[in-house]
Input
Amino acid sequence: MSKSLPPLNPLRVFEAVARLGNLTKAAEELHVSQSAVSRQITTLEGYLDVRLFTREARGVVLTKQGRFYRDEVSPAFARIAAATQRLRSSGSSIPLKVSAYTTFAAKWLLPNLSKFEQAHPRIEIRLTSSVQPVNFDKDDVNIAIQFGDGKRTDVTSIRLFDDLIEPVCSPSIMASDRPLLTPPDLVHHKLIHSRFRTADWPDWQRANGVETLRFKQGPNMPSSLLAYEAAVGGLGVAIGQTHLLKQELASGQLIRPFDLPLRRPLGYYALLPRNSDQAEARVFLEWLKDEMKLQGLD
Output
């Protein structure tokens, strides 16, 4: 087993350079000279017999092999750092402040959070909710889960899953004298809207060629959570986020009448401060990605 391990000091230097993207910054973090960092990278590249970085005017850039190696190695260092900090914390829990959209928190995070607590009992999740863009310079937050296009340049943004939307309704609507068999049948029912997702219905209608039809205006709810509850109660048809309604769909509380989901160029993203080195945040991020992969979310 030991023969398959690379020299560990060069590996630690590689992780720092790959994370920071800069030899000088890595040298400062590791309290060594830049030339020492360069030598360690050369040693590791020689051991692996691959090129890990290319030099550019603004610093170093990972090669394809370097990106693969970083993605495999970095989580191990995060776990080692987290384990070390937990061991040194004298048995006290380590708080991790997570901000998440309310719908994501209620429909995905809370139903799954016990799995994280069982795997990492020393990390205490302190959860808050917000729909406002996180500002890590002002907000008392370590990691945020927000909805958008993932193009913010002031944070590290990791996609969790795409935005998949489609109409959902109560079984009572399907049992009525006006069941939903094709998209034009929506004209016979009230459409439930959510305050912060005003583009959902127009986007889905446009994608399915029914944007010119006259639809009945249903209740405009202050959140998606209440929109879904209104749909469960038979007050109309909501436009649902399929990935966040697995429980309601599995139990039969809600039905997908058309099975015509629309995937948009938006999604849920985990956001961290640029160059974040907090071990607990990265452990939580790895758990998020692993759990969503297990659940088949994309």
Remarks:
- The mean pLDDT is 90.
- The longest helix spans residues 64-87.
- The chain has two domains: 2-87, 93-298.
- Residues 93-298 form a domain with the D-Maltodextrin-Binding Protein; domain 2 fold (CATH 3.40.190.290).
